[in-house]
Amino acid sequence: MLRFVLRVLLIFMPLVRWPLRAWIRTHVSPSDLNELAIDFDKPVCYVLPVASLLDWLALEAVCDAHGMPRPYLAGNRPPTVKRAVVLALPVGRSRQRSELQRIVTRGLHDHSFDVQLVPVSVFWGRNPVQETSIFRILFADSERSSRLRKILIVAANGRNTLVHFGQPIDYRNVVDASATPGALVRKLVRVLRVHFRRQRAATLGPGVSRRAQLIDTLMADPKVVTEITETARRERKNVAAIRVRAREYADEIAADYSNIAIGFMLRVLTWLWHRIYDGIDVKHLPRLREAAHGNREVIYLPSHRSHMDYLLLSYILYQEGLALPQIAAGVNLNFWPVGGLLRRCGAFYLRRSFKGDRLYAAVFRTYVETLVARGQPMKFYPEGGRSRTGRLLAPKTGMLQMTVASALASSGNAPVAVVPVYIGYDRVMEVKGYFDELRGTRVKKGETMGDLVRGSTRVLKRKYGRVFVSFGEPIELQRFADDHLPDWRDRMTDLAVDSRPKWLQQFTDALADDVMRGINATATLNATGLACLILLGAPQKSVAEDEMVHSLELLARLAHACPYSNDASAPEPDGAALLAEAEPLMRLIRAPHAWGDILTVDSRQAVLLTYTRNNVMHLFALPSLIANFFAHFEQRNEKALLDDAAELYPLLASELFLRWPVDACRDALVDAIEGMIECDLLSRTEKGALRRPVAGTQTFAALMSLARIMREALERYAMTAMLLSHNLEVGVVERGRFERQCQLMAERMALLTGRNSPEFFDARLFRNHLQTLVKAGLLRPEGNKLYIDESLRHLAEHALRLLGSDIRQTIAHLTSMPQLEDATPGQTLG
């Protein structure tokens, strides 16, 4: 009977195929099907989780559109190189079982027979929300549905269909000559069912209750109930009034996922990305898919440089067929109409500080615990806010600590992956406002609808180049805990609800540092960043065109010769092409000259370009440090150079989140030296010393540009160390006052040396630098006091030796001046 029905359907299929194909609008995952590495010289067999002619039509449409082998119903014919087939996982003693068994039997008898089994999942609409309405029940996609319901699902969701291709299964490795066909079929079915179950979870995520139900769940949680009672007792108010306040908090926090809003934003963002950007360059997606398939939950921790970051990652994940995360967003973004729209796209809101409001903290913590317990993917920014300088900020660990504690306490051995994500831009649209804030001429304020309209009008008139998104090596949370906190299971069991012990803070700090290093390890070196490194390294921010082309090519070669990490990427060393790409985005000014054009920028644009430079400067941190030893010397002893560079390395590593541990930095420095020699930036003499290129050559100019990448950082270290060494007789400084003095000193130095770089005297850099000296044992904190170690004097002299005589004189003069305690940084540069 079934065969008769199939024959009838096949006869009438041409009458319905093309109308259905016209209605269905498919997206494919992965977007780059080359990731599948399908060998078209071998037969292909597509495997669907359930038997469905409509799923087959969607698969056929994708295969036709992307040049994949077209799927035919298997029937009694096995797949061949010229004829791919499609079958479904068998249910009971079904026809599909006999088709799969036929393929297995042939493999057992014919050892030359091979086939690629490609699992294919078809999702009609992608709404994971569990609703109780009849409308949702009828039209929501499900793994198994009746024919009538399937038609309704396709009619409702056919315009939003995802077809996901899994990695081909190695058929010959599965076939065991000693097994029976029946046993092999069962083995294949088990493998494929696990794949389809994981793929569905990775694409749709966990089922999410309606928002009202979720809020009711929060309000009924014992921790929230207890805190409501305690708050009412402390404030001497009615419990009902406090419960109303708690519900208001929950309503302010909770996301309200809507498939309609997601579809709307998908169309808006697709238009927007093409309108203001030249493309999105995404790297390391296969490892992300593996993490999404192999872990109960994925926590995304991206760098934060622009408001565009909020939906960029969700846009990419949606396009690639992965479950959307819930996004922790600052409550400052919860203004009409943006707040509601972001909330429906998965944003939940948090206040900048919970201090003094235990009830809010309890509600928010319970919300996070609920997400973690359900395996809901999450995303938040470890830096806490957008970077105003382009470099990574020191992580703020409050949200991370809360999430980690919830994940370890609730998941046990269920795997949780923490994924660092690098996000970079050719140009950041907010950079002008960032530097106005650093100068003190603009006060940071909350966003409003008026700001959005004014900003959108300006933004849509310009192009901002490309966006670079790269997924770092996932950190398996449980394995990280096993390595850094072996008894974490016992500790988590005994952890009180509101307890935040020192060991948990230390563990979270270690994880946060790993995350920041992971973000930097997967950075993308783009043409604009490379050109900014060179131009801003020129003394007058002016470079001859031929010198720029040569330096671009040389530094791109260096990035390949001694790569920062296996995950970092660099452009091809074609200087002319790199300049052509970077020139319009940097707004370079060409000054014609008979001997060749001069490239420069106006002073304001030079300041803005430092942001782009800071995105990628860490990629050249070690070569730049080495180059600084040759700024004033033609040659240096290699061993002495390595000793001196290793002494300065911890300071750079702390500021830039460099990936090498302190005890491994010498090997990394040796690799950098070898890369510089390969690129002719250095050479070895017959006696084994290192020598720089001849002064006046283009290679020498490139070496000096390389040295200037880290020059300002070295100057800050020298200033701080010298200022501290002048207090050695007293032996102690007051931390807050000393930070202000460092900032004032850097500000004055910027004025005296003609710099136009507000980030040079950014208070956060000095704060982080002092913390590094504490870790190195050169400062000992006690309360708000810092006690100075005698060996700091040697560090100061060492750092000064790398600087020119004019800078040394300026620093020496500034450190000998009496310090004004009532001055405020930024007063003179407004």
SS class: alpha/beta
Q: Which runs of at least 5 residues are low in confidence (pLDDT < 50)?
A: 129-133
Give the distance, in angstroms, between the N- and C-terminal Cα atoms. Answer: 85 Å
As for the number of domains, it is: 4
Mean pLDDT: 83
Helix content: 40-55%
Number of E strands: 24
Helix count from the secondary structure assignment: 34
Draw up the topology in text.
Elements: H1 2-23, E1 26-29, E2 44-48, H2 53-66, E3 71-73, E4 84-88, H3 95-109, E5 116-124, H4 134-139, H5 147-157, E6 161-165, E7 169-170, H6 171-174, H7 181-204, H8 211-220, H9 222-235, H10 239-253, H11 259-276, E8 280-283, H12 285-294, E9 297-302, H13 309-319, E10 326-330, H14 338-344, E11 347-350, H15 358-373, E12 378-379, H16 398-411, E13 416-425, H17 431-439, H18 449-459, E14 467-471, E15 475-476, H19 477-484, H20 488-494, H21 502-521, H22 527-535, E16 542-544, H23 545-561, H24 575-586, E17 589-591, E18 598-600, H25 603-616, H26 621-628, E19 635-636, H27 638-656, H28 665-678, E20 683-684, E21 690-691, H29 698-708, H30 711-725, E22 732-734, H31 735-752, H32 763-775, E23 779-782, E24 785-788, H33 792-801, H34 805-816
Helix pairs in contact: 3-7, 7-12, 8-10, 9-10, 9-15, 10-15, 15-16, 16-21, 22-23, 22-24, 22-25, 23-24, 23-29, 26-27, 26-29, 27-28, 27-32, 30-33, 30-34, 31-32, 31-34
